[in-house]
UniProtKB/TrEMBL annotation:
InterPro entries: Beta-barrel_TonB (IPR000531), Beta-barrel_TonB_sf (IPR036942), CarboxyPept-like_regulatory (IPR008969), Plug_dom (IPR012910), Plug_dom_sf (IPR037066), Secretin/TonB_short_N (IPR011662), TonB-dep_OMP_SusC/RagA (IPR023996), TonB-dep_OMP_SusC/RagA_CS (IPR023997)
Higher taxonomy: Bacteria, Pseudomonadati, Bacteroidota, Sphingobacteriia, Sphingobacteriales
UniProt-listed SUPFAM superfamilies: Carboxypeptidase regulatory domain-like (SSF49464), Porins (SSF56935)
Similarity annotation: Belongs to the TonB-dependent receptor family.
Domain called Secretin/TonB short N-terminal: residue spans: 99-150
Protein known as: TonB-dependent receptor plug
Topology within the bilayer: Multi-pass membrane protein
UniProt keywords, alphabetically: Cell outer membrane, Ion transport, Iron, Iron transport, Membrane, Receptor, TonB box, Transmembrane, Transmembrane beta strand, Transport
GO annotation, biological process: iron ion transport
A cellular component annotation (GO) from this entry: cell outer membrane
Statement: the UniProt record of this protein carries the keyword Repeat: no
Length: 1184
């Protein structure tokens, strides 16, 4: 006999014995039988021979089975093994009995280990013992043992699921080992399904422990679920430790890794936006390297300030961290929860906890994203002839005459329509270009298919003694420009390990390296005041050509495309290396822990800039140069930061009393050194070096050192997890303030009452699972001011003149300083509740708070002018912020088809307002802060429609003080001009004294502060498919377009600015008296003394919005497929970021990147920023 492979099986999966013609009996493959039809074994169908073979097979089966049965009983097996593989046991039985074993390798892959002890047992008994508890059976035929899967008998199973208080509806009931097979309980907690008689069912419900039940032939099952420790006892990260959710008394929110996974995001801020109530994150633009601006609970101080961001307990750069490395993010919002961190936490704390290894063998995970970005919010221009005609009308409306140059353009455009063979640029009688193109500048300028890729790899695992997590990440994102390279790359490496050296000693180390490299056109061309976005809004007229027939830039092309392509490059490097080493000692039966750790970080910010002049063809055959500065500069900033912590925590319980005490000390040191060198006159446009510039050199540097020394403590007490009390305090000393004012103590207190644990609440337990009321009060110092504001300093600089052949150094008298500068303090009162209902399917949280920021640094009282110096800063201003926040989440399931559909809906909503309560502005000038001011106020005029006739101005208030220039042609407003309301009734439209006491006709007409920030999360899971959607938005916000916002005002700014579609049909004409814009006239919006240049109600923009931030659809390949590949998970997904936006805001602006200054004079207010991006990706997530 010889061992062969079945010709139609997968290689290596089946074995059988060739024993005369027994092969025909073992494999009843019709094609295989038919091989007897021809001598060469072809597959020609031969039914007569098949019939003969099948008859012969029947008799052989009978005779051979009888023979095999007798032979099987005649042989014996002796075998003793423990936890052996089934394959090994079967092999040994085959050796002892001389039987051949036939099985499919796949069957044995999932077989349980075997423990067996038999002596002189029959082969049947040995096999039955070996296959006991396995889902396998055997047959003995002709000296061959065939192992096969048992035919599963399906039985109907019914049952009821309840907890200690009653039945549970919506419980997921799934068949173990069969993906997608399951159901959910109905309103009475009942379920029904057909399952194999030896099946196991697993019951899952949010807020309860999973429970697996063996059917074991039963037809009715009663299941009682226990409350999950993972809900009320969920571990919340707090300062220098953790707490159970049930005992938390501060205002704390936390999100897990699911927020960051499988999303096409470059940084953490993009995922956190809208995920946590009152964690406000904004982006100033859409640059590939742009990080988020973090704020907790609204306006902080007139000097700015944001939350303290800690990564694994130490300060870090959240924009550089790999989002896939994050386990959870916790936000500490009130003074009680943040007080333990003291002076740097006055406006909240963001705690980032990175992943650690999970107990078990090594697990490898690889995931990627591949896709592309599209530029969002590009305005739509009109065709060339329409643009030229409207611009000429705007010029005529201002001057009374046609524009001669524009008449040439209009005439040439008409000629080109009649004869398309004419060149884009003609020549005028005076020898200048006549522009006759029809170019869509925005399509030519922006790339709508920008490559994006991200790769993440991590290896993790843990044993009883060692826990490790190793990861690497790579991100590559192209930018928005077509003309020039614009690319961002980031590299991340993390190594995290913890080892138990002794039962009482653990040591750990957490090292990370990150580097971001941004290669972009000259950043001052890209981001400065005269940037390409401004020039695009000035020169992107469709009749303008980008290049001449000779391939040279036109003037318009040079100021936009040429600046990017030939204006130089900027290379930016952001590198960070950080390492934390620590030890944790346990004493007194694990009741006392002592932790010591030291974190050292090094960050380097390097930038090389090459700025070049751009040449263009100003007239046919005549070249000119745009006067960009021509220089090369190199700068570097190095920051060394170290933190040492030593703290101990002790927990003690007796009866129903539980105490926890934490005390510790911290030392923080920061050294900051920056260096800058610049040299004029580049010799080469391709080589970058200071030595390759021939002009004057400028060199400078700056050094700064500050330190913080602290003692801190926390005392927590709870009685029966029903009455909760906590004290936090920190004593901080900072080098930033004078010696006598360096130290401050900042205490807080918080308490909670778990009402649902009271005996009188038992009647409501069927509906309300948990109800906790919380309150807290405390104060924190703020040291986030300049390093040494109490020291008078003198700076040296080169004089703007030459003396004896060189520019001498000069200085000036120092300004006045206050010797009593001290801490700003932020005092917060917070009250809230946490509520879970309906078997924890519905969870609600609410907080109301008031934060008073006192002693803000500002200028002191006005001093006599004869002093000859600026007033020093002093602690002389106060601010009050009031707000609220709410979070809600619903999670449940129902049957859809033959599988349960599990879904969840989450909502976060918050609001706050800030008001100045102390400020030295006795005259009440509203151009400065004043008492009673709500931060973000917009002062402006009230519109009263348009003048209906040319003579109506005679009965209207005098508007000449508002519009000082634009009436110069006629001397007064005409029909179609803006009319303002005379609110003070004095017959003149003006701003009075610009004070709150005499504002003239100006009033507060809006507010730039965002109100009602919200986020909506939706999640669905059905079988192997999942879908998640995240919406984010702002419910109320006002915005005034800046006077330079050409994309919004168009030709109302300068007569020759591009015309956008939103202007067409929307400006006043006698036939269109109810239009949005006034009659066509240039320069109305160019400055504050023009009718459109000052804020007013008619053109105040509604900047509220709702945006679909992310939509992800995923599919998990069935386990039966991927186990063949030795994998544990394969997930395919597609995802999109910033997909759809609903807003009333003009297309000239993106609602996320507009400025929030009251006067909106920033580039954001004018729309001159790098556009926001929309992202589409497909990805793969593999684990093994």
């Amino acid at each position: 006999m010889e061992v062969l492979e079945h010709p139609h099986s997968k290689k290596g999966l089946n074995r059988f014995v060739k024993h005369d013609f027994v092969t025909l009996i073992l494999y009843k493959d019709m094609n295989y039988f038919s091989r007897a039809c021809t001598p060469d074994g072809s597959k020609t169908y031969c039914p007569l021979k098949v019939i003969r073979i099948m008859k012969l097979t029947f008799f052989l089966l009978v005779s051979l089975s009888l023979g095999a049965y007798a032979k099987g009983n005649a042989q014996s097996v002796s075998l003793s093994v423990k936890d052996a593989k089934l394959e090994q046991v079967l092999t040994e039985i085959g050796k002892q009995t001389q039987y051949r074993i036939l099985y499919n390798d796949e069957l044995l892959q999932t077989a349980k280990s075997v423990s067996l002890n038999v002596k002189d047992a029959s082969i049947n008994k040995a096999l039955e013992s070996a296959l006991k508890s396995q889902n396998l059976t055997y047959r003995i035929i002709a000296g061959t043992i065939t192992i096969a899967a048992k035919e599963q008998q399906m039985v109907p199973v019914k049952g009821t699921v309840r907890d200690s208080t009653g039945v549970l509806a919506g419980v997921s009931v799934a068949l173990v080992g069969a993906t997608g097979k399951g159901t959910v309980t109905d309103a009475n907690g009942q379920f029904s399904m057909n399952v194999p008689e030896d099946a196991s069912l697993i019951f899952r419900f949010m807020g309860y422990q999973d429970q697996e039940v063996l059917v074991n032939g039963r037809t009715h099952i009663e299941v009682v679920l226990k409350a999950a420790q993972s809900f009320l006892d969920e571990v919340m990260v707090v300062g220098y430790g953790t707490q159970k959710r049930a005992t938390v008394t501060g205002a704390i929110n936390q999100v897990g890794a699911e927020v960051f996974e499988n999303r096409p995001i470059v940084n953490v801020a993009q995922a956190l936006q809208g995920a946590i109530p009152n964690l406000n994150i904004t982006f100033s633009d859409g640059r590939p390297d742009r990080g988020g601006n973090f704020n907790v609970r609204g306006f902080t101080s007139i000097n700015g300030g944001g939350p303290l961001i800690l990564i694994d307990g130490a300060p870090g750069e959240i924009d550089l961290i790999n989002p896939q490395d994050i386990e959870k993010v916790t936000v500490l919002k009130d003074a009680s929860s943040a007080a333990i961190y003291g002076a740097r936490a006055s406006f909240g704390v963001v705690l980032v906890t990175t992943k650690s290894g999970k107990k078990g063998s090594a697990r490898i995970n690889y995931s990627n994203n591949f896709g592309f970005n599209q530029t969002m919010g590009l305005p739509t221009t009109v065709d060339a002839l329409t643009a030229a005609t409207i611009q000429n009308d705007a010029y005529k409306g201002y001057s009374g005459n046609d524009n001669a140059d524009m008449l040439l353009v209009i005439d040439y455009l008409k000629q080109r329509q009649a004869d398309p063979s004419l060149p884009e640029l003609g020549t005028s009688p005076s020898g200048n270009f006549i522009r006759g193109s029809n170019t869509n500048w925005y399509d030519a300028f922006y790339n709508q298919n920008q490559f994006f890729s991200k790769h993440m790899l991590n290896i993790s695992g843990a044993s009883d003694k060692v826990n490790y997590y190793l990861s690497g990440g790579y991100t590559d994102q192209d930018g928005t420009f077509k003309t020039a390279t614009d690319n961002y790359k980031r590299y991340n490496v993390r190594a995290k390990v913890e080892a138990e050296l002794k039962p009482w000693l653990k040591v750990y180390n957490n090292a990370e390296f990150s580097e971001g490299n941004y290669d972009t056109p000259n950043k001052f061309v890209n981001t400065g005041g005269n940037n390409v976005y401004r020039f695009l809004s000035l020169f992107a007229n469709p009749y303008e050509a980008i290049k001449t027939a000779d391939g040279n830039w036109t003037q318009a092309g040079a100021l936009t495309f040429g600046q990017l392509a030939d204006g130089g490059r900027t290379l930016q490097k952001n590198r960070m290396l950080r390492n934390t080493t620590g030890a944790r000692l346990s004493f007194l039966k694990d009741a006392l822990h002592v932790t010591a750790d030291f974190t050292a970080s090094y960050r380097q910010l390097a930038e090389d800039i090459q700025s070049l002049q751009v040449r263009y063809e100003s007239r046919p055959g005549v070249m000119a140069t745009y006067p960009n500065p021509n220089y090369y500069s190199s700068s570097s900033r190095e920051i060394f930061h170290s933190v040492a912590n030593l703290y101990a925590d002790y927990a003690k319980s007796f009866a129903k009393h539980h105490f926890n005490v934490l005390v510790g000390a911290s030392q923080e040191l920061d050294k900051d050194h920056s260096f800058y060198a610049r040299k004029e006159g580049n010799i080469s446009s391709s080589l970058n070096s200071l030595n390759l510039a021939s002009g004057e050199a400028t060199v400078g540097d700056n050094k700064q050192v500050w330190g913080l020394r602290s003692l801190f403590g926390r005392l927590s007490y709870n009685f029966d997890e029903r009455y909760l009390l906590e004290f936090n305090g920190r004593y901080d000393g900072t080098s930033r303030f004078p010696k006598n004012d360096r130290f401050g103590f900042f205490p807080s207190i918080s308490g909670g009452w778990v009402v649902s644990e009271e005996p009188f609440f038992s009647a409501l337990k069927n509906t309300i699972d948990n109800f906790k009321i919380r309150a807290s009060y405390g104060s924190l110092g703020n040291q986030q001011v300049s390093a040494y504001p109490y020291i008078a300093t003198m700076s040296l600089s080169q004089a703007p003149f030459i003396l004896d052949g060189s520019r001498p150094l000069n200085t000036r008298a120092p300004g006045l300083v206050s010797p009593t500068l001290t801490w700003e303090t932020a005092t917060t009162f917070d009250v809230g509740f946490d509520l879970s209902l309906l078997k924890n399917r519905l969870q609600l949280g609410f907080d109301w708070y008031e934060r008073n920021t006192r002693n803000m640094l500002t200028k002191s009282k006005t001093l006599p002018a004869v002093l000859g110096a600026v007033e020093p800063q002093t602690n002389a201003a106060d601010l009050a912020t009031k707000g609220w926040e709410i979070s809600a989440r619903w999670e449940s399931a129902f049957d859809l088809g033959d599988k349960p559909l599990r879904y969840n809906i989450g909502l976060v909503l918050s609001d706050n307002q800030s008001k100045i309560t102390r400020y030295d502005n006795p005259s009440g000038l509203f151009s400065d802060y004043y008492v009673g001011e709500r931060i973000g106020e917009i002062w402006g005029y009230t519109n009263h429609g348009f003048f209906k006739t040319d003579d109506e101005y005679l009965q209207a208030a005098d508007q000449s003080k508002v519009s000082t220039i634009e009436y110069q042609l006629d001397g007064h407003p005409l029909a179609g001009d803006i009319r303002f309301a005379d609110l003070d009734g004095n017959g003149v439209i003006d701003f009075g004294e610009q004070t709150i006491y005499n504002p003239g006709d100006m009033r507060v007409i809006g507010n730039t502060s965002p109100r009602y920030a919200y986020g909506i999360n939706l999640g669905f899971n059905w079988g192997d498919f999942d879908l998640s959607a995240f919406f984010q938005g702002i419910g109320k916000r006002d915005f005034w377009p800046g006077s330079e916002s050409g994309v919004f005002w168009g030709t109302f700014n300068r007569w020759n600015q591009p015309i956008y579609e939103h202007l067409i049909g929307n400006y006043w004409t006698p036939e269109n008296p109810d239009a949005y814009f006034p009659r066509l006239r240039a320069y109305q919006a160019l400055a504050a003394n023009r009718s459109l240049g000052t804020a007013q109600t008619a053109y105040l923009q509604d900047a509220s919005y709702l945006r679909l931030k992310n939509l992800t659809i995923g599919y998990n390949l069935p386990a039966t497929w991927i186990t063949k590949l030795g994998l544990t998970k394969i997930r395919l997904f597609v995802s999109g970021q910033n997909l759809v936006t609903w807003t009333k805001l003009s297309e000239a602006f993106d609602p996320e990147s507009i400025g929030d200054e009251p006067d909106n004079t920033t580039k954001s207010g004018n729309g001159f920023v790098y556009p926001m991006q929309r992202t589409y990706v497909a990805g793969l997530d593999i684990s093994f």
